[in-house]
Amino acid sequence: MSIVKRFPFIARFQGTPTAYVVHLSRGSVVHQGVGQAFWFKPTTSALSEVPVVDVELPVIFHASTLDHQDVTVQITATYRFADPVLATQRLEFGTYPKTTVTAPSGQEQAAAILTRLAQALVVADVGTRRLDQVIGDPAHIHAVLADGIAADRRLRDTGLEVVDLHVLAIRPEADVEKALQTPLREQVQAEADKATFERRALAVERERAISENELASKIELATRTQQLVAQEGANARRRAEEEAAAALIAAQGEATRRGLDVEAEAAAVRATGEANAAAIRATGEANAAAAAALIGGYEGVDTGLLRALALRDLAQNIGRLNVSQLTITPDLVSKALAHLGV
User: Which stretch of 85-94, 165-174, 260-269 has the lowest confidence by average pLDDT?
Assistant: First the structure.
């Protein structure tokens, strides 16, 4: 902010680098520029200061579309005073001498000019288009504003220049906006449901694949178990067959050995029997021969005599006989005595 120091009959002005000062003395420009410092006579001088920095102006206003729908348009314009000297001639930027009349400052006037111009351009354009066209094409409004501001003569005559322009929002009334958002919201919800369904379907497909893998693993395991059981059974049968064959061979060997032993025993028994039979035959033959010889000695001897001899032998050997009772009849004694000649 500039500084003005007053002294008797004279004053000193000290400017800033962000303000353009215009010093008029008796209606003529004596000093102008930024960062000026000079002496001046208070009684004959007038000072004006114009900011040379960029000023950002937010603007919000309402407009009605062709289908009678109210929309709210929000824009931001950045402007500056391209011709400060011209601006001091059209707008209120006086800093010295101060007046008692309260009037809008030059910046307030410039903001009002830009606001009314932008509103007029947007309202005129929005009134020729439908709501869906307006809210769906903010670039069109930006182009209308840019072309209208560039072509406006008053801005040029005031020394204003718009250096940047943005259309921030174009919104209908709340209930209309909600109604317009419903299809999109339903579409988004449908897409979300679709994504959820696809995710669930993918999860089910993965679970099915996992279940199929598990089932295939179980089938493979069961098949291998069956093969293992069959192989174990075959091994057991082969082992049993080998053991049976070995047992058969052992039994056959044992039977052969026992047969040989039996045959040997039978041969020995046969040999012993034959020897015994031969001995018995020899003994029998000897006994028979002795008996025959004895009998031959008694050949021709009287029967009575033989009986008497038999009784004598019996009497001699009676003690060695286990005879508890002997019965001799008179006839037997008479016959024996008769043969003896008594």
Answer: 260-269
